[in-house]
């Protein structure tokens, strides 16, 4: 093998890839035998391998389910918004780490809209879909449902978009695998992710409105 090229490898659906498995695949190749004796090089090499992958959203899909208990609710018997956001952050971080197999930190949370409160005793379900990767960051779409198990009714509670950044062994942002959408919903979320990212950058003062080409195209015909 003359050198490690950066050719992207599509990960089979429903397959979880870890640093260990990736390194194990290459451990018998002569250029990489010294990795076993150098932990820092091992972590760095693993991060580069992971960054070469292209994954489907379904590979990193996460469902989190919890029962709403008395200590989770406010005086009205509804799940507290802060408690819900805490659980959403955990679920989103789990999906982000499953996508990149590296530590992640929350970079932004936006567009949290509440439609129905989740009542005491109801079942809370959080679904997390990775939508798109941008170098070291990932956008994730969260959909929250409540379920009354006695009445056998299920209702929508809220939705949101979270952004996470992957960190390398030195705590610095590092490249993450790309996302290849498959279903119509995944393609729709993927297409809209760039516009949402540009809007976040504009609101944070990191991008000028005139430089946001995707957003401009919605309102201005050149």
Distinctive features:
222 residues, alpha/beta, Thiol Ester Dehydrase, Chain A, 5-stranded antiparallel beta sheet, 5 helices, globular
Q: What proportion of the residues is helical, as a percent range?
A: 25-40%
Rg computed from alpha carbons, rounded to a whole number of angstroms: 20 Å
Q: What is the level-2 CATH architecture name of the largest domain?
A: Roll
Helix/sheet category: alpha/beta
Written overview of the protein:
It is a single chain. With 222 residues, the protein is α/β, with parallel strands linked by helices. It folds into 2 domains: 39 residues, no CATH class; 166 residues, Thiol Ester Dehydrase, Chain A (Roll), CATH 3.10.129.10. The chain is built from 5 helices and 8 strands. The protein has a 5-stranded antiparallel sheet with strand order 3-5-6-7-4. Helix 1 crosses helix 2. The protein starts with 8 loop residues before the first strand and ends with a helix. 29% of the residues are buried. The N terminus is likely disordered.
């Amino acid at each position: 093998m003359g050198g490690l090229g950066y050719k992207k490898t599509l990960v089979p659906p429903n397959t979880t890839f870890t640093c260990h498995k990736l390194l194990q695949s290459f451990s018998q190749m002569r250029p990489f035998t010294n990795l076993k004796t150098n932990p820092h090089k091992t972590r760095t090499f693993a991060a580069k391998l992971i960054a070469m992958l292209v994954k489907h959203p379904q590979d990193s899909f996460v469902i989190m389910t919890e029962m709403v208990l008395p200590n989770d609710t406010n005086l009205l018997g509804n799940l507290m918004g802060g408690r819900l956001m805490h659980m959403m952050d955990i679920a989103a971080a789990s999906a982000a780490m499953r996508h990149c197999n590296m530590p992640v930190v929350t970079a932004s949370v936006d567009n949290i809209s509440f439609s129905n409160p989740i009542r005491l005793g109801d079942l809370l379900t959080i679904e997390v879909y990775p939508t798109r990767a941008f170098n070291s960051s990932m956008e994730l779409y969260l959909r929250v449902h409540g379920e009354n198990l006695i009445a056998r009714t299920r209702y929508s509670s809220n939705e949101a978009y979270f952004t996470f950044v992957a960190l390398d062994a030195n705590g610095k942002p590092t490249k993450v695998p790309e996302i290849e959408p498959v279903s119509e919903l995944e393609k729709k979320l993927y297409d809209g992710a760039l516009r949402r990212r540009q809007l976040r950058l504009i609101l944070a003062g990191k991008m000028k409105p005139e430089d946001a080409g995707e957003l401009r195209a919605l309102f201005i015909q050149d």
